[in-house]
Amino acid sequence: MLHTLKDKTFTFFDLETNGLERSSAILEIGAVQGTLDQFRAQDKAIRTFHSILYFKGNLNPFAQAVHKIDSDELLNGSSVCSVLKNFCGFSQDTVLVGHNIISFDLPVLSYHLESYGLSLASKGVLDTHVLARQYLKLPSYKLSVVAQFFQIPVLNAHRALSDAKTASEVF
After folding, report:
1. Cα gap 94→90, rounded to integer Å
2. Is 0.85 topped by the overall pTM?
3. Burial of 151 by CB count in 10 Å (0-12 exposed, 13-18 middle, 19+ buried)?
4. Digit-coded pLDDT (tens) for 48-61
5. Which of 13, 128, 131, 159 has the fewest CB atoms inside 10 Å of its own CB, making it the most exposed?
6. Residue 165: how many CA atoms within 13 Å on its side-chain side?
């Protein structure tokens, strides 16, 4: 399997949202992109994508506490449509990877992409949450627990770019 993945480009991504529903507003998108060799070498050629999205609705207090994103950041965020278009371009023709993306991030992202007539053109999807459940015996499969198992420090948990980077190290 590793041989077939060696030459692929991966986009590890994460969303932070204003709730847990498929239709919840996306507050932040973070991603890192590169080949397995680039990630192993911590190559400077790894590309990053990060954006806070414009949101002026009622910020869920739980989401605000968990993500540490405040209303001012969101009011100064980028337009949802332009961020989604840019992310589609950034991730095009790559393998999408993330922690719990099959159950959460991709359905939320797809919901918002569809509302703007956009879609992802990826070369496949891998979920580190699914892989961890399949291969590891842990008390929990949260990203922080899986990272701790591999002795990977978790910095700025529940911020999109940091979680995307952590998922890339777990993978």
Report:
1. 9
2. yes
3. exposed
4. 999 999 999 999 99
5. 131
6. 18
